[in-house]
Amino acid sequence: MVIDFKGRVAIVTGAGGGLGRQHALALARRGAKVLVNDLGGAVDGSGGTVTAAQAVVDEIRAAGGEALANGASVTDFAAVEAMVQQAIDAWGRVDVLVNNAGILRDKSFAKMSMDDFRLVVDVHLMGAANCCKAVWPHMVAQQYGRIVMTTSSTGLYGNFGQANYGAAKLAQVGLMQTLAIEGAKYNIHVNALAPTAATRMTEGLMPQEVLDALKPEAVVPAMLVLAHESAPTRTILCAGAGTFEAAHITLTQGIHLGIGAEVPEQLAARLAEVTERAGEQVPQSGAAQGTNEVGRALAARA
Fold first, then answer.
1. In the structure, how many helices (H) and strands (E) does the chain have?
2. CA atoms of 128 and 252, how far apart (whole Å)
3. Is 165 marked active-site?
4. Is the distance from CB of 40 to CB of 47 less than 8 angstroms?
5. pLDDT digits over 131-147, tens only?
6. Phi, psi of 21 (to 5 degrees)
7. Distance between CA atoms of 280 and 267, rounded to whole angstroms?
8. Quick one: pLDDT at residue 183?
9. CA 123 to CA 268: how far, in whole Å?
């Protein structure tokens, strides 16, 4: 199978540099018409210019591809709607959305201002939600869509000094889970990518030798797989340095203890049984938890 995007239209946010730029270039090389969005701000989200997005567009066009630049902030829903309309007006459809825009305002939680917490959540979570909301009616109407969220190992597993970033990144997974369920009947597949890549957001955080191994290009294959017509849905792919893994949010079998005054002590004593991972499942929806719990309760009564 050849993964190509001929006839497809893609929007990539935060595509003026780093990983987003590589995403945009790869999609264009494989035939997609690409709207390159980038606010053009600093790593902390300050400032803004369309210059970075336009440079990527110029690069795509120089290679024979089709691309448009857009400098909207993903936190501005009206501007995001106008961005999507820009793609519709030019090419008549939107097939792929890669939610890649992001900022960092790292500090330990004790030292972090709530303004910095809120801004990071606004960019990563609300930015992704704004973009999804803007493309959704078009994807429903055309009965086709592929959306890629950009999550992070920080969201999945935690990282010191990144409470705001981690909260926003795991929230994108929650958004992905529900949109994938709601989009299924419209052939809209929604997935998440957890990249490990050396970009300006990671400068100074890792030794240079490690950064050299973590070229953004090494993450791109996972994005292409998740954005293609053959993509799975509700999948979390992890990628870095040419290695690819999958992350799962699972539910253990658990135990039934019922209701009673001694249940807290019983639960504490048997917590290892509750967390035992043998036989765990990857639920198809949130209903799986309640189904398991009620099923065990009814079985205990029988």
1. 12, 8
2. 30
3. yes
4. yes
5. 999 999 999 999 999 99
6. -60, -45
7. 19
8. 98
9. 39
- Pair 75, 41: CB distance under 8 Å: no
Length of the chain in terms of residues written: 302
Q: What are the tokens at 102?
A: 């992001």
pLDDT digits (tens, 9 = 90+) for 85-101: 999 999 999 999 999 99
Determine what percent of the chain falls in helix, strand and coil, rounding each to the nearest 5: 45, 15, 40
Instruction: Give residue-wise pLDDT tens across range 119-128.
Output: 999 999 999 9
Burial 163-188 (b: 16+ CB within 10 A, else e): bbbbbbbbbbbbbbbebbeebeeeeb
- Region of residue 251 (left: phi > 0; alpha: psi -120 to 50; beta: else): beta
Q: Are 163 and 153 in contact (CB under 8 A)?
A: no
In one-letter notation, the amino acid at residue 251 is L
Among 22, 11, 16, smallest CA distance to 216 is for 22
Burial environment of residue 268 by CB neighbours within 10 A (0 to 12, 13 to 18, 19 or more): exposed
Helix (H, G, I), strand (E, B) or coil at 97: strand
Tokens of 91: 């090419």
Question: What CA dihedral angle connects 294, 273, 178 and 9, to 10 degrees?
Answer: -150
Count other C-beta atoms under 10 Å from residue 56's C-beta. 26
Is residue 141 classed exposed, middle or buried when 0-12, 13-18 and 19+ CB atoms within 10 A define those classes?
exposed
**Which listed residue (144, 157, 165, 186) is catalytic?**
165
Residue with tokens 């009206």: 78
Strand order in the sheet with 67-70: 67-70, 33-37, 9-12, 96-99, 145-150, 188-196, 236-240, 243-247
pTM of this prediction?
0.93
Q: Which residue, chain included where needed, has tokens 């239209």?
A: 9
